[in-house]
Amino acid sequence: MTDETDISYILNELGEDRSNYFNAVAPPIIQTSNFRVNTVDELKKLFADEYSGYLYSRGLNPTVDILRKKLAALDEAEDCLVFNSGAAAIFAAVLANVNKGDHIISVKNPYSWVKRMFDLIFSRFGIETTYIEGTDIEQFENVLKANSRFIYLESPNSWNFAIQDINKVVAFAKRNGLITLMDNSYCTPLYQKPVPMGIDMCMQTATKYIGGHSDTLGGILTGSHQMIKKIFDCEYMAVGSGIQPFNAWLLIRGLRTLEIRIRRITESTKEVLQYLKKHPLVESILFPLDESFPQFELAGKQMKNACGLISFFVRAEKKKEIVHFCENLKHIMMAVSWGGHESLILPRCASLEETEFDAGNKEHRMLRLYIGLESAQYLIDDLEQAFRSSF
Ligand SMILES: *Cc1c(COP(=O)(O)O)cnc(C)c1O
Question: By C-alpha distance, which of 160, 222, 212, 157 is closest to 189?
Fold first, then answer.
């Protein structure tokens, strides 16, 4: 008997119907915009419910469906939609669940474009957003209004790793009839599954760990069948930001190695973290599963593990030292994004003028490191030579 929740089954077999395409091991890219129907009755059925079959690739597409089934199973959710980016997935999910005059409660530092979406788009339609730290359930209770409708969560945050107590937020949301969405990009379903914990919708940028090769964008939304169909029937079809078959195929390919990539990155991250913690030029580090992390206990309780991203604070007097450090790295690249094969660095002070740099402000001395698939020693050697030549 096959255990259909086994990750090996999900990544290698679930959703695939090889006897239908010449027993090819890799799925075909069904690169078509439209699908032929044989009878008027078929057309009638599809016009009434486009979620019931293949009509037009802005709706359902067979290559995308293979991916949807795997991603729903990984999240232990009933259903899934895949978008052309993580931002598109978030936009559709929020748009589908708020109305004029509603109030949104959001964590304080969500992904940058999410904040712009709330502040510059939804505000134009009379939808107000209140930002809270989100680290304590009382902060949610304190901002609750009669018109509160939606809670936006990101746990952990991808810069400072702030987390929300999922069980407590779910209980609060259910008590007050609020819909919850959680950005789970940091953990992936391997390390955290918000949907079985009671979160209504789980979002992930597939651009990061799911794709894993820095060669495609994508966004994942999972939840109940009812919720996902509601979004498909309106926002998904109307905005037209569903993923293209070729990009879906790249994400299926990324999934084959998801488990082994995450395992490797988890191991290397521990080694690089120990190196950074001992370095005299590093004042402190931020990592959710380090004892020094302010929410260490909660992180250990609700996350299976953590990997990839580390933030650290260097003992810099001037911005110049941080600039040199980043520019002197020979292998670790300076770039946005993360989750791919390549290690990356981002300095928090990038937008500051040299004269605006304040060594007394810890944030200015913050860097975020993403650990990719290189060996830990290769990365440590690169960091060491950059420290030596920059400070
Ligand atoms: C990158 C990112 C997103 C946005 O995903 P895109 O695929 O780039 O649109 C959302 N949330 C987090 C935490 C991210 O890192």
Answer: 222
Residue 16: its pLDDT value, please? 97
**What is the residue range of 107's domain?**
3-30+61-256
For ligand 1, whether the C-beta of 339 sits within 6 Å is: no
Kindly state if the Cβ of 185 falls inside 6 Å of ligand 1.
yes
Residue 244 DSSP code: P
Length of the chain: 391
For a ligand 1 pocket test, name from 109, 111, 183, 214 the mutation site with the most ligand atoms within 8 angstroms of its C-beta: 111
State the average pLDDT for the chain. Answer: 97
Does 152 contact ligand 1 (Cβ within 6 A)?
A: no
Q: What is the pLDDT of residue 4?
A: 85
List CB contacts of 151: < 8 A, sequence separation 6 or more. 104, 105, 106, 140, 169, 173, 178, 179, 180, 181
Q: Is residue 148 part of a domain?
A: yes
Which of 90, 186, 205 to mutate to test ligand 1, by most ligand atoms within 8 A of the CB atom? 205
Count of the separate structural domains present in the chain: 2
Does the CB atom of residue 205 touch ligand 1 within 6 A? yes
> In angstroms, what is the span from residue 189 Cα to ligand 1's centroid?
15
323 and 347 in contact (C-beta within 8 Å)? yes
CATH number at residue 372: 3.90.1150.10
1 has a pLDDT exceeding 80? no
180 phi/psi in degrees, rounded to 5: -115, 140
Instruction: State how beta strands 79-83 and 219-223 pair.
Output: antiparallel
Quick check: CB of 157 below 6 Å from ligand 1? no
* Ligand 1 centroid from CA 87, angstroms: 6
pLDDT bracket for residue 94 (50, 70, 90): very high
CATH number of 113's domain: 3.40.640.10
- Minimum-distance ligand 1 atom for the alpha carbon of 337: 1
Q: Is residue 39 part of a domain?
A: no
State the pLDDT at residue 3: 87
